[in-house]
Amino acid sequence: MKVKSLLILFLALFAIIFQSQSQTIETDRPDQTESSSVIPGQSLQVESGMVLCFREMPQHTERQILAPTTLFRYAPVRGFEVRLVNQFEHLEGGNEVAMGVSDLELGTKIQLLKRGDINCEVAVLSHVVFPTGSRELTGNCVGTVNKLLVSHAFGENLSLGYNLGYNYFGSGRGDGTYSMALGVGVTEKVGIYVEPYGEWVNFRALEANFDAGMTYLLRENLQLDFSFGTGLNQRMNYLSVGFSWNSMGGKGN
């Protein structure tokens, strides 16, 4: 099924009458919007999956496979987590093929606000990217990824999260990023979302995208996911499947 047909299918799901509570594990995948929640204190969470992405470049089509791409999250105390991102990448473009480990990311997420009376959560996220990847895949310099994370809950089954960020990878003026995810709990096990996202490359060119996806709660602390996306002003498509597991289960505190 084509990506645009899948987008229509997910939008049609919003016509369902939402009837049960939202899911219990809070994750940063599969959408591009990082959650404003921090995992429970003294717990470990693993979020892993596979991504297949096609991008139309000026002279050729680029294919990227991330399998696996994994985020490790550990919260030594309430409201604070340490994060590690590692992934294996296969990249094809033109006559060139690169395969190996991407640069390592190490960072934190800190929750600044969690107010049930105003239905608002705020957190900040910051990662440092180290040039530890394979020769063909490394950026050859230290970089940084930073985001302000905000979310609002509207009842038990509807939520809105949005991020504003800034990335810098050693050259130019860096990139501004944005995303906004609308999530719906369809049943106590199934959730769906739609999301515009993108970045201002070097604060000059806007790359706008759209994605959608679904999650399935297999157990209280184990979630499966599927997502897909497409470029709005560029030729790009991706598909992703994955899972998230928490050592304790339950919502971030």
Please explain how this structure is put together.
The chain is mostly beta strands and 253 residues long. The chain has a domain of 173 residues: Porin, CATH 2.40.160. It has one helix and 13 strands. A twelve-stranded antiparallel β-barrel has the order 1-2-3-5-6-7-8-9-10-11-12-13. It is globular and about 55 Å long.
Features:
253 residues; 1 helix; globular; mainly beta; Porin; single chain; twelve-stranded antiparallel beta barrel
Offer a concise description of the structure.
The protein is mainly beta and 253 residues long. The protein has one helix spanning 3-12, and strands spanning 43-56, 61-77, 80-93, 96-101, 104-115, 120-130, 143-154, 158-168, 175-185, 190-201, 205-219, 222-231, 236-246. It has a 12-stranded antiparallel beta barrel with strand order 1-2-3-5-6-7-8-9-10-11-12-13.
For this structure, the CATH topology of one domain is Porin
Strand residue percentage: over 45%
The number of strands is: 13
Supply the number of helical segments: 1
CATH class value of one domain: Mainly Beta
Separation of the first and last Cα atoms: 39 Å
Mean of pLDDT = 90
Radius of gyration: 18 Å
Major sheet characteristics: 12 strands, antiparallel, barrel
